[in-house]
TrEMBL record:
The keyword Kinase applies. It comes from the Bacteria. InterPro entries: ATPase_NBD (IPR043129), ROK (IPR000600). Pfam families: ROK. This is Sugar kinase of the NBD/HSP70 family, may contain an N-terminal HTH domain. GO terms for molecular function: kinase activity. It comes from Jiangella alkaliphila. The lineage of its organism: Bacteria, Bacillati, Actinomycetota, Actinomycetes, Jiangellales. Residues 25-45 are annotated as: Disordered. Belongs to the ROK (NagC/XylR) family. Keywords: Kinase, Transferase. The keyword Endoplasmic reticulum does not apply.
Length: 340
């Protein structure tokens, strides 16, 4: 969990202004202190640099906040497909490259890593992440600590995305972040804390029994909901209906151009997302649902989901798209690392 507390480093305000200056936030004067934080807001307090890392199956993106110059630096690489220590080594090299570029080499930074799957808070292994092979058989935070010189935070990427939406925006309140892209995941902020469950498995909505047979062995790796609610699911469903292949972005474009098969795919996507949202609401009843990821953050996805929710929920559910877009996990990682 990440808990609200005192910003002893004084990083909250300056980091928020840096995010606003970089265009991550809509305004530099809204919510000057992130939700749930208190304390100094006027300087860096001699703080170490802060690095947020968003690890995906194909892309590794890291952003450093330089407190001495109050600026952001970032690097993007393709994720090493070998997984395991090849990826932890890659993360360490990327962090080292950023600190050197900022002129801060030799100062161990505060690092938070967002990754797919379920980081186990006891063993440090990351399960349910088939695109990062080997992480389910190693203590990931311990390995990174050796390489970085300081122990990082390692959280599910959707949980960090939820934390970013909660921490940097006014209002607070319980929040669920539904990420739809290569796969589907859920991040939860409940009672001002990022909630991952006893084994890190809270929010693994890919396993919800919607969209396809949960007992089919083919659905045991990615989950029945993810087989339909994902980029691959959109592409497979369009192939079934239209008899030809199109990448997911082209399916959205085709729907806008009047392609009936594409329009049906998006309608079915919204229906399944509405079912997932209702299931989450029934258990934890968050004040706000945020749709993110490459597919979830699209306005067409939001419209289709709201249309199906209106059938049973009317206007009672607050559902919106992510403020940070594809940088939501990074925004949450920076917030988590800043007060770690």
């Amino acid at each position: 969990m990440v808990m609200p507390g005192t910003d002893r480093t004084g990083l909250a305000g300056p980091l928020r202004r840096a995010l606003a200056d970089a265009g991550w936030l809509p305004s530099s004067d809204a919510a000057p202190t992130p939700s749930g934080w208190s304390g100094a807001d006027d300087g860096d307090g001699g703080a170490a640099p802060v690095v947020g890392v968003d690890l995906g199956g194909t892309k590794l993106h890291a952003v450093l906040y330089d407190p001495s110059r109050q600026r952001l630096l970032d690097r993007v690489e393709r994720t090493d497909p070998r997984g395991g220590t090849a990826v932890t080594s890659q993360i360490a090299r990327l962090v080292e490259s950023l600190t050197a570029a900022a002129g801060l080499a030799g100062r161990p930074p505060r690092v938070a890593v967002g990754c797919p799957g379920a980081p186990d808070p006891v063993t440090g292994a990351v399960g349910h992440a088939p695109n990062i092979p080997g992480w389910d058989r190693m203590d990931v935070p311990a390995d990174l600590e050796v390489r970085l010189g300081a122990r990082p935070l390692v959280h599910n990427d959707a949980n960090l995305a939820a934390w970013g939406e909660h921490a940097w925006l006014p209002g607070g309140g319980d929040l669920a972040f539904v990420a739809v892209g290569t796969g589907v995941g859920l991040g939860l902020v409940l009672g001002g804390r990022m909630y991952a469950g006893s084994r890190g498995l809270a929010g693994e909505v890919a396993d919800l029994p919607f969209g396809s047979d949960p007992f089919d062995p083919a659905n045991l790796v990615h989950g029945p909901l993810e087989q339909q609610v994902s980029g691959g699911g959109v592409e497979r469903r369009y192939l079934e209906l239209a008899g030809r292949r199109r990448p997911a972005p082209e399916v959205f474009a085709a729907a806008a151009d009047g392609d009936r098969a594409a329009a049906q795919v998006l309608d079915e996507l919204g229906r399944l997302l509405a079912l997932a949202v209702r299931a989450v609401r029934a258990i934890v009843d968050p004040a706000t649902f945020v749709l993110g990821g490459g597919i979830g953050s699209r306005p067409e996805t939001l419209t289709a989901t709201r249309r199906w929710l209106a059938v049973t929920e009317g206007e009672s559910l607050q559902v919106r798209t992510s403020t940070f877009g594809n940088r939501a996990a990074l925004a949450g990682a920076l917030a988590a690392a800043a007060v770690a």
